[in-house]
Amino acid sequence: xxxxxxxxxxxxxxxxxxxxxxxxxxxxxxxxxxxxxxxxxxxxxxxxxxxxxxxxxxxxxxxxxxxxxxxxxxxxxxxxxxxxxxxxxxxxxxxxxxxxxxxxxxxxxxxxxxxxxxxxxxxxxxxxxxxxxxxxxxxxxxxxxxxxxxxxxxxxxxxxxxxxxxxxxxxxxxxxxxxxxxxxxxxxxxxxxxxxxxxxxxxxxxxxxxxxxxxxxxxxxxxxxxxxxxxxxxxxxxxxxxxxxxxxxxxxxxxxxxxxxxxxxxxxxxxxxxxxxxxxxxxxxxxxxxxxxxxxxxxxxxxxxxxxxxxxxxxxxxxxxxxxxxxxxxxxxxxxxxxxxxxxxxxxxxxxxxxxxxxxxxxxxxxxxxx
Length: 371
Known about the structure:
Blueprint: E1 5-14, H1 18-30, E2 34-40, E3 45-47, E4 50-55, H2 61-79, E5 83-86, H3 92-101, E6 105-110, H4 114-118, H5 126-144, E7 149-152, H6 155-158, H7 175-179, E8 191-196, H8 205-215, E9 221-226, H9 234-239, E10 247-249, H10 255-263, E11 267-270, H11 276-279, H12 284-291, E12 296-299, H13 302-310, E13 314-317, H14 322-334, H15 336-352, H16 356-370
Parallel strand pairs: 1-2, 1-5, 2-4, 5-6, 6-7, 8-9, 8-11, 9-10, 11-12, 12-13
Antiparallel strand pairs: 3-4
């Protein structure tokens, strides 16, 4: 009897996306599934036992949302898979069509609260955002009823769905991947701060830079930024700030390189602005900082405060207050023993509760049930 086949679909994420490739696809290969991944890449190839069919880089958002979508649909049909597992809201119609036209199981993997996300989309006119958000929420919930399972990444996202197979699979760190990364060089006696993720106003880029500028008046400090600017023009604004001289910018990097930078850092930052979708999110960067054993400075959202203070592994601050962020950084620099203890506590919490190994068991159990 042949191995059960799985076809994973994404138009938004690159082929080596951490959740999709390193966590889910590799987990399914180890569980004995024949896995195909359709994603943005330079060529078709086999990577770590996963058959990759490459999508070209889209020229713009419309090309990705419409042209790429139908390319994915045609490629997916050819695979004749037993299970289709898609990751992007723009593939909802593709998921419904695959369910109608094949005998396969279809899984919708929901990374974020998309209706809330739409409310902060700068490319949409403000007058349309609320209407589009409501319409998409209705469509998403209706489409989800067709699928074999819905896999939210957080409990906050889970609340939007009703389904007989609704399984939260958190995007917690893969300790094997993190521990196997080669640490980058340390910063010549400077306190090393790090931030991973999209570099935007709403994610606190300007407040982080301003805080680093304040800290630099007292201590030698370096901030490593790993991620992309959004919108792209925001890069010019940030790079022209005087605090940029204290920044090392890496852009997007493969997961092993990211974890290498993390393992050489002293403090992790995640100072997102207090908008609704941020306050119920569980950003993987928070747990990745904990996994490498460094203290975390995070926004003082109740959910995040419960994690950090409950596990004694970091400090929470008003993310709009650059002085509060700077004071927290200075406190950890001035209290190295306490900072190291926070780092150890965070690592222990990840080993016990917030790790991919436990989430992988939930994912495989779901696959066993439906396929």
